[in-house]
Specification:
single chain, 237 residues, mainly alpha, 9 helices
């Protein structure tokens, strides 16, 4: 499968831009105490169930996923994912110093925040990166088994959000599910490599079809020339 190559500068700019999208989406979620999915959601659930800090849980949960990325996907993907996760972590902490939201409708925060995070993750996927955790697994399954990343992530996130019913109020969980749906619809509808890269064997089929068309044109030309020659000979005779 042919893949688009990006330069180092293109990767860095795209990942920082994607990190800003994701960080602002997370900021909207936090302003309304909405739940998140993925590894962050698992870690947040863990803080309710165990006497452990979010940071430590998030680090431990991501360890097997980084190992999967390093051994099964690529070193470049792992490094880019580390850059993405670090960027989001830093920007999420810095955004409140630049933006102060006095009021926002929770449904708007869910929809717009979900779309922002989805677009950010889509940019990361296009530049061989992810938000870590479940994102790594989603990327791997799509590349290896052609399972859509958005569909897989939506399933996992839904399980996490349903589990949150044991810890937070159900209205917030329902709004969080809406956010997860918007996020994953962006990825599911747009992250489809077959739309951007040729399917294996497609090039050879197209080439064979082109050669066949050329052969047909040559046969038509030969037949036309033969017919003209016959007419000329008949007239001269």
């Amino acid at each position: 499968m042919q893949k688009t190559k990006h330069s180092f500068i293109e990767d860095v700019f795209a990942l920082i831009s994607a990190g800003l999208f994701v960080a602002f989406g997370v900021y909207l979620f936090q302003s309304q105490d909405l739940m998140v999915g993925g590894a962050a959601g698992l870690a947040l659930l863990g803080t309710y169930a165990f006497d452990m800090d979010f940071g430590l849980l998030f680090f431990l949960i991501n360890l097997p996923f980084y190992t999967l990325a390093w051994t099964q996907i690529s070193k470049r993907f792992t490094i880019n994912t580390f850059i993405s996760v670090t960027t989001v972590s830093v920007l999420t902490e810095q955004i409140p110093a630049f933006v102060d939201i006095s009021h926002v409708n929770p449904f708007f925060a869910a929809v717009f925040g979900g779309i922002l995070i989805g677009v950010g993750m889509l940019m990361m996927f296009r530049h061989s990166s992810s938000l870590g955790g479940v994102g790594i697994m989603a990327f791997y399954l799509q590349q290896r088994f052609n399972i859509r990343a958005g569909t897989f992530q939506l399933t996992v996130d839904s399980c996490i959000l349903l589990s949150a019913l044991f810890f937070i109020s159900w209205p917030l969980v329902l709004i969080s599910i809406l956010a997860a749906f918007c996020l994953n619809m962006v990825i599911s509808l747009n992250h489809r490599p077959e739309r951007y890269f040729p399917v294996p064997g497609e090039d050879s089929s197209a080439k064979a079809k082109t050669e066949s068309n050329k052969a047909d044109v040559k046969r038509v030309d030969c037949n036309e020339h033969s017919s003209i020659d016959s007419e000329l000979r008949a007239q001269n005779g």
